[in-house]
Design brief:
Blueprint: E1 7-11, H1 16-27, E2 31-36, H2 39-51, E3 55-60, H3 66-80, E4 85-88, H4 105-133, E5 136-142, H5 156-174, E6 179-185, H6 199-208, H7 218-229, E7 239-242
EC number: 1.1.1.-
Pfam families: adh_short_C2 (PF13561)
GO molecular function: oxidoreductase activity
Length: 250
């Protein structure tokens, strides 16, 4: 197993991406510490993981709450013995579909503020324990910071760019302590798109924008995340893993 004996904290674990990654990490031997704002959903996921033979713990709090984040990370380090992996996949409260020149400041800055704050706080909390261990992996999840013609993504693209700047800074400072920082990028995952009018057309556009004429699935994300967090990727840091099926060209 790729992650045998590792402790992974996943923020936003009850969502589509978070739950897929949690299942993938547990399948590879990690104990997953599931964090979110709805305990009922977290407990249901934890039960599912345990039934499948995995190990899971849950904690209910907001991943923007500095004190709760620090306290939980310290609790995991104390009770489990280590914090080996930290991954933040909470939603960024983004508003899409409105041209920038028609957007309010509040709607524009919401994803930027959320993304930077939550990723900084959770990465910092994990890193403080990883430094003492001399090892650890911090995974971020985002897209490309470049704008996409024809789409009105508001502040989300700015948020992605800010996250990448944060990732570069963390990787530079934490590398000497044996800590890796990596971003996973997709061009969109149809399984996470809420059902709505025009959904089929939106998914067709998403697929058409790829080179492989298919999009990444939640299972693809889970497998790549497990690889990135494992020793198989021990030489990878300060970079992004492009799993966009060719939507994004590096």
């Amino acid at each position: 197993m790729l992650l045998e004996g590792r402790n992974a904290i996943i923020y936003g674990a009850a969502g589509g991406i978070g739950s897929a990654v949690a299942r993938g990490f547990a399948r590879e031997g990690a104990t997953v510490h599931l964090v979110g704002r709805t305990l009922k959903k977290l407990d249901a996921l934890a039960d599912e993981i345990r039934v499948a033979g995995g190990k899971a713990e849950t904690a209910e709090f907001d991943a923007l709450d500095e004190a709760a984040i620090d306290e939980h990370a310290a609790s995991v380090a104390s009770s489990a013995g280590s914090v080996d992996i930290s991954m933040n996949v909470i939603t960024h409260n983004d508003v899409q579909g409105t041209p920038l020149v028609e957007m309010s400041l509040a709607d524009f800055e919401s994803p930027v503020r959320t993304a930077v704050q939550t990723n900084f706080l959770t990465a910092r909390a994990a890193a403080r324990h990883m430094i003492g261990q001399g090892s650890g992996v911090i995974l971020m999840f985002g897209g490309d910071g470049d704008p996409l013609p024809g789409y009105h993504l508001g502040g989300l693209q700015v948020a992605f760019s800010a996250m990448e700047a944060l990732r570069r800074g963390l990787a530079c400072e934490l590398g000497p302590h044996g800590i890796r920082v990596v971003t996973l990028r997709t061009g969109g995952i149809p399984e996470t798109v809420p059902a709505s009018a025009g959904l089929d057309e939106a998914i067709r556009d998403m697929v058409e924008a790829t080179m492989l004429k298919r999009t990444a699935s939640l299972e693809d994300v889970a497998r790549v995340a497990a690889f990135a967090a494992s020793d198989h990727a021990r030489s990878m840091t300060a970079t992004a893993l492009n799993i966009s099926c060719g939507t994004m060209v590096d």
